[in-house]
Design brief:
The structure is a single chain. This protein is mostly helical and 357 residues long. It has two domains: 155 residues, no CATH class; 189 residues, no CATH class. It has 15 helices and no strands. This is ABC transporter permease. Keywords: Membrane, Transmembrane, Transmembrane helix. It comes from Spirosoma flavum.
């Protein structure tokens, strides 16, 4: 029975929120080193106010797990779990405790790190508070899950519900995060690890700036499928979008903001890992070049039904051509101009074609 509960709740929870965890990891651990994290933890251990903020964040994570469990219990395909309440209370509660512990594992691991540091510095009050809060979160989560099992009527108790009006620029990133987390994880992990690896490789030998450009080219091509995903998303959910009275530059600006948000984690990774031999302004230009490259790929893929074989052949040819251009010394400024001017020109031509048709 426990393996079934883990499959329904624990695995599904991590699979559905894989994109969220990736974003948190990139922001928290891609931009801050372990030494800086240790300094933040030390500050929290000696500051009751700071430690309370950490506990509030953990409580919000608990609410997310509870919301997921409640939704799963009321899903039509999981109605058979209503018979789970026939299991004796001690065994049932023990299973819920195991499930809730598994779902709270990320904050438990972080709490374990805090406990280790608290032991080193003798912060016994903070250590006791951390242990009590973690135990309380697990117990409360298990009790609320069992409460919904015994009271399946959704109207008996409601969790706080927050409605946020999303701007258009967040429509696709939110959809990508919720509905296609595996694609998001693979895309951003490939891009982020590649850029970080190239930055770490740079000081090991006598490389020049072309190495960073090659890494940037591969990271951009790693996002080659995103334009098609955006196009498919809008055809399915935003059919009215093409009929809105928006000029081509307004449409281009909206897509530029959207891709800027998608490309933002790479900026944090570059700022965190860029070699000391490279100037900071060059890193910023490098990131802006990648942003323009994403916009160019979007303009080439959006609205077209391209066979996957032809698209992959085009990506491979682009890599070979780009690699040769980089090896012959094409500077980052030229790549920046090519990306953005190509994207603007493609967007303008597409708008003119729609008008003529």
């Amino acid at each position: 029975m426990l393996s079934l509960l883990n499959r329904i709740f624990v695995r599904s929870f991590y699979a559905k929120n894989a994109g969220t965890f990736l974003v948190v990891i990139l922001v928290a651990f891609g931009f801050l080193s372990s030494v800086e994290h240790k300094a933040l933890i030390t500050a929290a251990l000696v500051s009751p106010f700071f430690l309370t903020i950490v506990f509030i964040l953990w409580s919000l994570y608990l609410l997310k797990t509870i919301s997921f469990v409640w939704q799963a219990l009321t899903a039509p395909e999981h109605l058979f779990l209503q018979t789970f309440w026939l299991v004796p209370n001690p065994i049932r509660l023990a299973m819920w405790l195991v499930v809730q512990t598994a779902m709270l594992l990320p904050i438990i691991l972080y709490a374990g790190w805090m406990v280790q540091i608290a032991t080193q510095y003798g912060q016994w009050n903070s250590l006791s508070a951390i242990v009590l809060v973690i135990v309380g979160l697990i117990v409360v989560g298990a009790w609320l899950a069992d409460h919904r099992l015994r009271h399946p009527n959704p109207n008996t108790l409601h969790l706080p519900h927050l409605t946020v009006k999303l701007p258009y620029e967040l429509f696709f990133p939110t959809y990508w995060l919720r509905n296609e987390p595996l694609s998001l994880v693979l895309t951003k992990a490939f891009s982020g690890l590649l850029l970080a690896g190239v930055c770490r490789l740079y000081p090991t030998d006598d490389y020049d700036q072309r190495l960073l450009l090659i890494g940037l080219l591969l990271a951009i091509l790693g996002h080659s499928q995103v334009g098609g995903q955006v196009s498919a998303f809008e055809r399915q959910y935003l059919l009215f979008l093409q009929n809105l009275p928006l000029s081509w530059w307004q449409r281009f600006g909206r897509y530029a903001l959207m891709y800027g948000l998608i490309w933002l984690p790479e900026l944090l990774i570059l700022l965190r890992n860029y070699p000391t031999e490279i100037r900071l302004d060059y890193i910023v230009w490098l990131w802006l070049t990648g942003w323009g490259g994403l916009m160019l790929l979007h303009s080439l893929a959006y609205g077209y039904d391209i066979l996957p074989e032809r698209w992959l052949s085009g990506i491979f040819a682009s890599f070979i051509g780009g690699l040769l251009a980089i090896m012959f010394g094409l500077p980052v400024g030229a790549w920046l101009a090519l990306g953005w001017l190509g994207a603007i020109g493609s967007c303008y031509w597409a708008s003119r074609r729609r008008v003529l048709m």
